[in-house]
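FAQ: What does the model actually see?

It sees only this:
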Amino acid sequence: MISFCSSERPWFHQRGQTFLVIVVFIAVFLLAVLGLATDYSQVWAHRQMAQGAADAACQAAAADLFLNAVSPSASGQNGLQSFSWIGSPFDCSTNAGSPPCAYAALNGYSGSNVSVTFPSSLTGVNVIPAGFGTIAHPYIKVVITDHVPMSFTKLVSSTGTVNITASAGCGLNPVAVPIPLVVLHPTSTGALSVASAASSIKILGGPNRSIQVDSSSNSAVNATHSNNVNLSQAGPGGSGADFGAFGGPSTKPAGVNVGSSGNWVQPSTPIGDPWIIIATPPVPGTAGTATPVPFAVNGCPDPSGCVEFSGGNYTACSNSVAPGGNGCLISPNFTSGGVPWQLSHPYTAGALIKPTAAQHNAGGYIYQALNTGTSSGAVPNPWNQTIGGNQIDGGVTWKNMGPNSTSPKTAIFDPGLYYIESGGLNPGPNTTMRMSTGGSCPPNCASGDGSNGAIFYFSTAGGTVSVGNNTGKGSACTSQPIPGSSGCIVSYKPDGSTLFGVTSRALQCPGGPANPPQVPAAMDGNILLAPCSGTYGSSDSKSRGFLFFQNRSTAANPSWGGGGQFLLSGFMYFHQDGSYGSVLTMNGGSGAGAFTLGNIVVDKLAITGNSGITMILNPQVTFQVLKPQLLQ
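And it is asked to produce this:
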């Protein structure tokens, strides 16, 4: 009998040994894989921690980078460190107390493992537009190196550690935001001052923050009486808005009312000049003109007549001027009352003439062409001496518009840029300022440069806006006035309608937001409207832009009083680069209301007088300002 046992046992024995070797190999392999997975899970976790630390350090540093650019005097103020660490590259073995190093340390990274540099650009990030000026250090980059020890990997490799790096790039980036009322002086006490119990500023609507005061002074805001600053109806919801103060006081002043939705935010990072990128208006190539116009012509609301100004260069104006000459703002004396009539001359509809006494115009009346045509070859004898009556003159029909003063006290302004030198905008006692309608309105409301409003640029320190307490106080006409009479001014109609034959330029820009409900249906006093379109209008041509713009290289003391109603629709910008020497003083009217529709950016602001000013902000109008951001 043959046995096979002896030949099978070695085979099974060898097979068992092979299986054991395979099991051991797989176990070692799995152990190595598990070790690698464990190690590189740790690498991934450290990578995330390092990146979070780099981002935090970078963003903390960017905040100081921003302040160093827009408000360098904030260095060392209100708990901030000195900005002396900004500029030269370093690692955190030095400058350990600087913001990037401090925040990196809070996240577990310090010493030479954290490096900080200040590149002039960042890959993939658009450069800051030139309009923001030269910024020495616009960007910062933080790089963190983490030496992660390997526990299992080193069993199968000579690598004992893996070095991982995480980097973050931050800097200043233009961002479109709505602008609050901004007071720019970096250090002044009382930068915003509402001095007495009888004076107040009330803000309606606008963005979440209504006011920003950049001064680092502990007494930057002076408002001690109830509702000196009333924000209870401000903000998007009309129930309150924030008041931001970089300096102080640290607690909300008794005179500040932020409403149910607002907050007193202190310290609040300074915003800097939000209009720094707006180019200075160029000197116009032509001189502005001054023309006497009679009642109701081009929106003249004064029965005794007005002076109508056109946009242009007013740096070499004259107070004694012929009609159509370069008369200084706002009450020039005319050497004659109007343009003489001419024989066989072509006239366009709306043209104004004043025939002389020798031309049989004993009353010295002004006439307006009702149609385009050519005058007669003979002098009408006499000209129709009935105010409102018509005169046929060859191919032209004229209307007697009444007499016109050679020293009018009411000014109307055509749309355009008013480039003003030393004279400023300085109306005398008992004067009134309004906007012209530029002819029949509609359809010809867009006269002048077509922007639908006026911008007054003050080019010298000696020229600014200075409206005294006896302007804009003319009594409102209560019945149809007689052309040539005096003693009343026709009220302004914000809806652009006609009252007593006088048409108003509408407050609302074409296609823009409806007029605020707080604005009365009729207003008296001074009414000035900024452009809706063009360089100094809004970007969408639906809101009014810049009304007053002071040369940034000069200090000025603009003031607006009046003692009655007034409405200023547009931005008021009074800022001196570097020295912050411009102070705007505003005095509310004693009438039914004094309104500013738009934003104010000024070095210092003082609200005085015995009544209030209502400021209505538009949250839809935005401008690009620099903000610190994580960029890469």
